[in-house]
Automatic annotation (TrEMBL):
Belongs to the pyrroline-5-carboxylate reductase family. It comes from Sinorhizobium americanum. The lineage of its organism: Bacteria, Pseudomonadati, Pseudomonadota, Alphaproteobacteria, Hyphomicrobiales. PANTHER family: PYRROLINE-5-CARBOXYLATE REDUCTASE, PYRROLINE-5-CARBOXYLATE REDUCTASE CATALYTIC N-TERMINAL DOMAIN-CONTAINING PROTEIN. The gene is proC. This is Pyrroline-5-carboxylate reductase ProC. Keywords: NADP, Oxidoreductase, Plasmid. Its EC number is 1.5.1.2.
Length: 255
C-alpha cells in the first residue's frame, strides 16, 4: 500500500510517525514538499518516506491520499490537482464541509473525513471518521481507536468536542500556576497534576458502562472538597461558559 500526504504539517508528521510504527503493510509514504523542514525530517527519520516532486505526484502515486492542508488555503491547493475516479481520499481539513471538498476535488472520489489528533504519533489516538469506511477505520484503529460516525451531525459534534484539548491543558496550566503562586515548585506541581488527570481519564475509559455523572459523584465525598469545587464551578458559570463555547465552535463548523 502506498499512502500520500498533500500538506506536511503537525498532523501529517504525527500520522506518519504512527503509521511507520504500526503493523500496517505500507510499502511507501509520499509527502508533499510544502513544508520542507517537516518533509525533510520525516524522510530522514524513516526509510519508507520520500518527498514528492510536487503535490500532483503525491496524488498520482497514492492509493490512499490524505489531504492535510490548512483550511485557509485548501481550495487553492486542491483545485489545482487532478484526482482519479474512485480514488480513496481522506480529508483531515478542519471546519470544511463535504460538498465544498467535493466541488474542489471535481472528481468522483471515495471521500472520507476524519479528525485525527496528535496522539496518533504514539498510536494512542482516537479518530472520528465520516462516513463509515472499513478501510480507513482499520488504518486509524492501528493508530489507536476509530469512531465511525453514521451521520454528518455526529461527526460535527465530535469535531466540536475535540476543540477542548487546549482547554484541558489550560486548566492544568492554571492549576499548576496557582500551586506555584502558593510556593510550590512548578515542576513538582506538574509532576503531581499530570498523572492525576491521566488517571481520571483512564478511569472514564475503563468504566464505559458507568455514567460520567455517577463517576463525578463517586469521586466527590458528600460535603467534601471535590463536591465544593464543582459546586463553585457551577455557581461561577463554568458549565454555562463551556456549553456556550462548544455551541460557538459547532456554529463555526457548520457554517
Amino acid at each position: 500500500m502506498r499512502i500520500g500526504f498533500v500538506g506536511t504539517g503537525t498532523i501529517t508528521e504525527a500520522m506518519v510517525t504512527g503509521i511507520v510504527a504500526s503493523p500496517l503493510d505500507v510499502a511507501e509514504i509520499i509527502v508533499s514538499p510544502r513544508s520542507r523542514e517537516i518533509a525533510a525530517r520525516l524522510a530522514g527519520r524513516f526509510p519508507s518516506v520520500r518527498i514528492g516532486r510536487d503535490n500532483q505526484e503525491v496524488v498520482d502515486v497514492a492509493e490512499i491520499l490524505f489531504l492535510a492542508i490548512r483550511p485557509q488555503i485548501a481550495e487553492e491547493v486542491i483545485a489545482e490537482l487532478a484526482f482519479r475516479k474512485g480514488q480513496a481520499v481522506v480529508s483531515v481539513i478542519a471546519a470544511t464541509d463535504r460538498p465544498r471538498l467535493l466541488s474542489w476535488i471535481n472528481e468522483e472520489v471515495n471521500l472520507t473525513q476524519t479528525v485525527p489528533l496528535p496522539f496518533v504519533a504514539d498510536r494512542e489516538g482516537v479518530t472520528a471518521i465520516y462516513p463509515p469506511n472499513p478501510g480507513v477505520a482499520a488504518l486509524f484503529a492501528a493508530l489507536g481507536t476509530a469512531v465511525e460516525c453514521e451521520t454528518k451531525e455526529e461527526y460535527d459534534l465530535l469535531a466540536a468536542a475535540s476543540a477542548l484539548m487546549g482547554t484541558y491543558f489550560g486548566i492544568l496550566d492554571r492549576t499548576t500556576g496557582w500551586l506555584a503562586e502558593k510556593g510550590m515548585e512548578r515542576e513538582k506541581a506538574r509532576a503531581y497534576l499530570a498523572p492525576l488527570f491521566a488517571s481520571l481519564a483512564q478511569t472514564a475509559v475503563r468504566a464505559q458502562a458507568t455514567p460520567l455523572d455517577t463517576l463525578r459523584r463517586e469521586f466527590s465525598t458528600p460535603g467534601g472538597l471535590n463536591e465544593q469545587v464543582f459546586a463553585d464551578f457551577e455557581r461561577g458559570g463554568g458549565s454555562r461558559a463551556l456549553t456556550e463555547a462548544l455551541e460557538a465552535v459547532l456554529r463555526r463548523i457548520r457554517r
